[in-house]
Structures are given as C-alpha cells and as structure tokens.
C-alpha cells in the first residue's frame, strides 16, 4: 500500500513523498545440511555468502527498502534443527524513520533444537527522533541447543547531533530454554519515560545500548573470561552476569556508538572463540 505525506526539504519547501507500507517476512529452516522451508516477501531479502574457512553456513538478512516507516510490519523467523549450525547477520543497521503517527511493528523469532548452534548478530537498529517502534524478539532454545545473540539500539542519529527524544519504543525479548521461560526483558520509552535516558539510574546519557545473550550448556563458565573484555573501554558502561548455569547476559551502554561497537565485537569474538570453538573474527559484512 502506498501513501503520500507532506515533508520539508533542506530549503524548507514542502514536498510530497511517497510512503510505501510493507508487510514483509523472511522465514528459513536449516535441516539435513541445507536451508529448507525458505520464504521471503518484500522488502525482506536473504543473501547467502560463501562461508569463510572454519565458519558455519552463513546468511545475511536484508531490508531492501532501506529503512522502516510507521505502519510497516516486518518479521524474521529462523529455525536451526538438531546438530545443525548457522551464522545469521543483518545487512546493515536498520533505520526506523520519523513517523507520521503510525507505529512500525517488527518481530524476530529464533529457534534452536538440541545440538544445534545459532549465532544472530544484528548490525543494530537506529531510531530517528519521532520514530514509533513496537518490536518483539522470541528466542526458543532447546536444553542442549546453543544461541549467541546480539542486538544494539542506537537512540538517535548521533553523528548529526540528533537524539531520540520523542516518539515511542516498546522492545520486548523473551527467552525460553527447553520450553520454559527463563528470561524476559521489556524496554519502553514513551512520554515521561524519555527522562530515564539522562537519569543516573537510567541510561545516564548513553544512547547506544547493546544486549548479548549466550544460552548454552555451562554458559556461565565464560563469566570470568568476559569481564576483562568489558574493561577494555573505560568510557563505556558494561557488565556481565550469569542468570543461570546455562545463560549469560552482557549489557553495553555508551554515548558513542563506535565505542560500543568495538566492545560488542571484542565480546562476541571472545565468546564464539572460547565457547563455540570458532575463529575469533567478525563476519566480513561487519566491516562494511
């Protein structure tokens, strides 16, 4: 569906822009050594780079629309069957544009069976001032499955001096292990909630917020190895905790997204190398 909206260009002249609302989805399953049950609808697109030496099968999830506008509905579902492995990344940071009043809805649904391993590395989500986003992430990991998950929220176009100071954000994460809910996280920014971005007990001025989850048997044994990695950037607030013997949580909060990105990369490489037995390197697309 296409709508039109009046906007101001850089000279202050009113222009008419065409806003296309998307209802896009991408679904795939890795089973029997191949990608099975694959389906995509615009603007979602799957790319399949050749795996580098020592790496598992890899996919890149892209949004060819270039961003998300109010009213869009986008979803990603990935399943990894028993004893299969997959590295999934996103093509670029997802941009959530200023809304004309409608809310964009996004869903990420990741499932890992016993013996399976899934790495999900998002390039991040950038919320423009005035954006409206409602996102739900569901992580379903079998008792003997392994998931290394990362998502970063950047609250504003910080390089342009713009912060996310109006609009709405509702971001939910639900993690199940062996069918049982073991962790739930809700972040909401609306109305007076924006005051928390500058509060000492809130974000304390931080605008780049990363979550890394490692769910695997004996995941907590990586706790002491991760702590020194987080101390490498003194200007960044970061912490790691073992929520359960099989669940590790890392949180990274920074005013500078570049500093946060550097720390995310170091932590990610440390976990995948030390716990998954994979090369201590980031996907090639991460450097683009």
Automatic annotation (TrEMBL):
Its main location: cytoplasm. InterPro entries: UreD. It holds the Pfam family UreD. Keywords: Chaperone, Cytoplasm, Nickel insertion. GO terms for cellular component: cytoplasm. One of its GO terms (molecular function) is nickel cation binding. It is found in: Cytoplasm. Belongs to the UreD family. UreD, UreF and UreG form a complex that acts as a GTP-hydrolysis-dependent molecular chaperone, activating the urease apoprotein by helping to assemble the nickel containing metallocenter of UreC. The UreE protein probably delivers the nickel. Required for maturation of urease via the functional incorporation of the urease nickel metallocenter. This is Urease accessory protein UreD. The gene is ureD.
């Amino acid at each position: 569906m296409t709508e039109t909206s009046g906007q101001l260009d850089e000279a202050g002249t009113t222009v008419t822009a065409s806003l296309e609302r998307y209802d896009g989805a991408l679904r795939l399953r890795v089973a029997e050594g191949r990608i099975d049950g694959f389906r995509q609808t615009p603007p979602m697109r799957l790319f399949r780079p050749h795996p580098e030496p020592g790496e598992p099968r890899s996919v890149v999830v892209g949004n060819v629309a270039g961003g998300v506008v109010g009213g869009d509905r986008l979803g990603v579902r990935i399943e990894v069957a028993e004893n299969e492995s997959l590295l999934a990344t996103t093509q670029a940071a997802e941009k959530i544009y200023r809304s004309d009043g409608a809310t964009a809805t996004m869903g990420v649904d990741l499932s890992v069976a016993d013996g399976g391993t899934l790495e999900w590395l998002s390039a991040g989500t950038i919320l423009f001032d005035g954006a409206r986003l409602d996102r739900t992430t569901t992580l379903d990991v079998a008792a003997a499955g392994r998931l290394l998950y990362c998502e970063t929220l950047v609250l504003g176009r910080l390089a342009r001096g713009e912060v996310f100071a109006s609009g709405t954000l509702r971001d939910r994460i639900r993690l199940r292990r062996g069918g049982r809910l073991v962790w739930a996280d809700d972040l909401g920014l609306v109305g007076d909630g924006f005051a928390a971005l500058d509060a000492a007990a809130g974000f304390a001025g931080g605008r780049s917020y990363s979550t890394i989850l490692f769910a695997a048997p004996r995941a907590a044994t990586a706790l002491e190895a991760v702590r020194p990695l987080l101390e490498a950037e003194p200007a960044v607030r970061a912490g790691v905790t073992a929520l359960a013997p099989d669940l590790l949580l890392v949180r990274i909060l920074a005013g500078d997204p570049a500093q946060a990105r550097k720390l995310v990369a170091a932590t990610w490489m440390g976990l995948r190398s030390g716990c998954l037995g994979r090369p201590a390197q980031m996907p090639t697309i991460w450097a683009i």
